[in-house]
Amino acid sequence: MTATLVERVLAGDQGGIARLLTRIERRAPGVAEEIAALHEHTGTAHVVGITGPPGSGKSTLVSALAVEYRRQGRSVGILAVDPSSAYSGGAILGDRIRMNELSGDPDVYIRSLATRGALGGLSRAVVDGLSVLDAAGKDVILLETVGVGQVEVDIMGVAHSTVVVSIPGAGDAIQAIKAGLLEVADVHVVNKADSPGADRTVSELRDMLRLSRRKAFQWNVPVQKTSATRQEGVVELIAELDKHLGWMREHGVLDEHVHRLSATRVRWAAEETALRDLRPGVPEFDAAVDEVAQRRTDPLTAARTLLGHHEATTPDPATNPKEG
After folding, report:
1. CA 20 to 30 Å from 91, out of 53, 147, 149, 196?
2. pLDDT tier at 10 (50, 70, 90 boundaries)?
3. What does pTM read for this prediction?
4. Where on the phi/psi map is residue 171: left (φ > 0), alpha (ψ -120 to 50), or beta?
């Protein structure tokens, strides 16, 4: 069953992708092995995160980007994340109806992920979901979040390029600073740019970017105007995103990003493996519990024994001055 589902995903089968993503959300038995089987086939998709305040037109912008990417011959995956509700399923659901140009296109896949209150689970589901779409051959994956809080900032950490969307006259520039989004944005977008005050919002953002602390060789964050409903400025936005990905490759930032995300995934896998083996009913675990209960050992020693760790493999910083 596992091999068949993995093969379906690698072939870009929509049904296979949907089934595996559902299994990921449920953390179904065997799903970790399925994700592991896909890993060697990942690493080619450009992951673009889209965030900003409600009403800024993120979903419409995601639709416009998907349409333009398809016009350029690139396949697209879309993951919409709703960190606030277990029921709404994410704002992108409404765009499934509006994205008529993409209806029935086998090279576009759209999925919503709801957290159901589990922020850590959300992060893992998002990362695994990105791997599925990457392995399925999507050239670009658009990751949309609903709000502008810390959860969104954390989620954007898995994206290669982060787009922060603002709209004219809503004080979004100040809101971006409060939410910490000024620093995480790789491209600022002022959407609904045909509305009054668009140029002022662009100027405010550019002024704040100039005043922000910059490091040597840092990416020069652009501010791009768009009108997603009119498909205006979208080509230019994609050009900026492509330019950012190229800059990441040139300066080794992409490798650093991959390394950080890989470290997180190794830790998650280790935790999941340990939790699977360390539970009542597993003979070794039950025996260790008995040893602790009878005071023949302590919990830390029992845990290290179960995990195969020894004092020699865990140096004490106090006795190793070169560390720390």
Report:
1. 196
2. very high
3. 0.83
4. left
